[in-house]
Amino acid sequence: MTSAAERRARSEEPAAGSGHPATAVSGSRRALPPVAPVWPGAPTPLGARFRVGPDGVAGTNFALWAAGAEAVRLCLFDEHGRETRVPLTELTHEIWHGFVPGVMPGQRYGYRVDGRWDPWVGARWNPAKLLLDPYARAVDGEFGLPPEVYGHVRDWPQQQVADTVRDDRDSAPHVPKGVVVDDDDDWEDDRRPKTPWADSVIYELHVRGFTKLHPDIPEDLRGTYAGLAHPAAIEHLVRLGVTAVELLPVHQFAHEDHLLRRGLRNYWGYNSIGYFAPHAAYAASGTTGQQVGEFKRMVRALHAAGIEVVLDVVYNHTAEAGELGPTLSLKGIDNRGYYRLQDDARRYADYTGCGNTLHVVQPQVLRLITDSLRYWVTEMGVDGFRFDLAAALARSMHDVDMLSPFLAVIAQDPVLRRVKLIAEPWDIGSGGYQVGAFPPLWTEWNDRYRNTVRDFWRHALPDVREMGYRLSGSSDLYAWGGRRPYASVNFVTAHDGFTLRDLVSYETKHNEANGENNRDGTDDNRSWNCGAEGETDDERVRALRRGQLRNLLTTLLLSTGVPMLVAGDELGRTQRGNNNAYCQDNEISWLDWSLLDDPVWRPLCDLTSRLIELRHRHPVLRRRAFFSGRAHSADGLRDLAWFTSRGEEMTEGDWYAPAATLGMYLSGRDIPGRDERGAPVVDDSFLAVLHAGEGPTAFVLPGPPWAERYEVLVDTSREDQAEPPGTLHPAGTEITVPARAVLLLRVG
């Protein structure tokens, strides 16, 4: 083994080629500026922290965990890109650290880490590669992917062994740098909305796509955090009534090589490389630390409007991909420490489909993730997280384990257990589908809700059993361990897949613009084009599609659980049939705000807003406990009842019979729990009638004790929903439910 003294001696030398096999490509050496002074500093906190050091001298403490490294050099860059290398010689508990006097906020930096080159055992140290600090609070520049940024010779003739041939060309001119940030901010003027889960309505949006074409946002702010903080953007969110925005990834990310080669870019951002840094390309104010303040101001503006901020986070993999991927950060710091490797340690375990998987069982990796999460809560002000492919984080050594270190740490963390936690409860590995399995504290994206509602409205369900569960909170999935109905995040569409308009306009995906011969994206869309593929001039088809949109939105917003809308669905946004627009940073993905002024589409937005307002006003639509289905009074009235079109309560046989119509009675008299002052919660009662048949149907309104009369509040067969229909019907009346429609009736 190499002694600490030997490692320190080597750290005084310029970066040199070493390892196995011999270097294949070398770069010329440049004369470097004089080495800056470095004091011992401290091993915590990790990252670059500006502070006042000994004798009142201002500077920055740098600390990097690199367990197997033989030497670590801090690299400082001036405004002309000239590099000063500072050996970090202090090593405490596998953390290399030092305090550099005079290094102020705005300083750009990176690391070079030396060690063994032996890919056969997973060792991929290469000091020729400048590495991004995993704890960098800001990143200046974008990742291009020329050959120099690969630790191996990317274009080696024998590709089957290319990852074993080290490339010694300097990557520093081709990669972004971390930025020292002065992040002193106490948030005393901020007031978090702290919306209870049961009262939440989530709106999934993309910072750039939501604001890029907004006509009332100044052009220089469009596509940025400042643009989302603009009153014109917030006005739409407030008018809709959503309580939280779920932002597609805003951690610093990189573009994949295969996209850059095709002239495309990663738009969604599920390719993270900096877990503490807000993505620099979304900043209007600058990228040498200004992006941090701009993000904070955005959060404050949303909070002031009563809107929480939830981040979609990608801790399951990084942008470094597999053995043939670039060396940008963790791979060059300690490949074996950060990533799950196969028995053949040249290869990466891939539960994500993206080439690698972070080794969350490792204490330092778990620390990286939890430090990042706490940072975004305590210093950036966010209110919660949606975890991409969360099952990958819950794996112990191989299997998904709901007692895994990651879930255990989150459960006991005094900061993280108090924020909103949303799991995407699956990954692509064996046993990775875990819908309904995450423990209390967690809510989950419920794709069974999505699939069932889509199938019901295209009349593809064999019976209505599944629909009953999904409308009433999915108790079959979540009524265990003290979980509540709001454990289910209900959605019909998400960023991944068709938009709502495309769901009723296309039966097959049309992803040709992605350049992958339409192979990418799911084929399981459960969509129905209403009689014509794509856009059409047939007004009959167009009207049918608009009705289906109203049905889907109404179903979502009347269902028990937490509804999630996708930005633009309320406007009738289309992606022209692309169900995997991850690389479409253009009008395919951006919101078309002209739809808001279109008389054809504006009523859909008005209906969405009205349904959300109805949900906020009526606690029976946002229950905090599951329905019991039992009578709580002598008259036999239950908190939840189901009716056939004959006006009779459904029997066991009715649940198994083919049907296109379902009546759901929600009693406002039997809502469990009390309000903030301890008083019983009492509300109106409602009857929702959902009919997916292609023709109208008769429906008998249930009589006493259920109701004396009914008032129609919503009728999705109507184009204009600006005013409630208000029609009154005596109990026992046979009414006609139009083809493919939802009626919501208030009980009197």
Automatic annotation (TrEMBL):
Q: Where is the Glycosyl hydrolase family 13 catalytic domain?
A: 204-615
InterPro entries linked to this entry: GH, GH13_cat_dom, GlgX_Isoamylase_N_E_set, Glyco_hydro_13_N, Glyco_hydro_b, Glycogen_debranch_GlgX, Ig-like_fold, Ig_E-set
Which GO MF term does the entry hold, naming one? hydrolase activity, acting on glycosyl bonds
**SUPFAM superfamilies (UniProt xref):** (Trans)glycosidases, E set domains, Glycosyl hydrolase domain
Q: Which SMART domains match?
A: Aamy
Which UniProt keyword terms apply here?
Glycosidase, Hydrolase
Residues of the region (Disordered) are 1-38, 165-192, 511-533
Q: Which domain of life is it from?
A: Bacteria
| Residue stretches of biased makeup (Basic and acidic residues) | 1-13, 511-526
Which EC numbers characterise this protein's activity in its record? 3.2.1.-
Q: Which Pfam families match?
A: CBM_48
Q: Please verify whether the record's keywords include Hydrolase.
A: yes
**UniProt similarity note:** Belongs to the glycosyl hydrolase 13 family.
By what name is this protein known? Glycogen operon protein
Classification lineage: Bacteria, Bacillati, Actinomycetota, Actinomycetes, Kitasatosporales
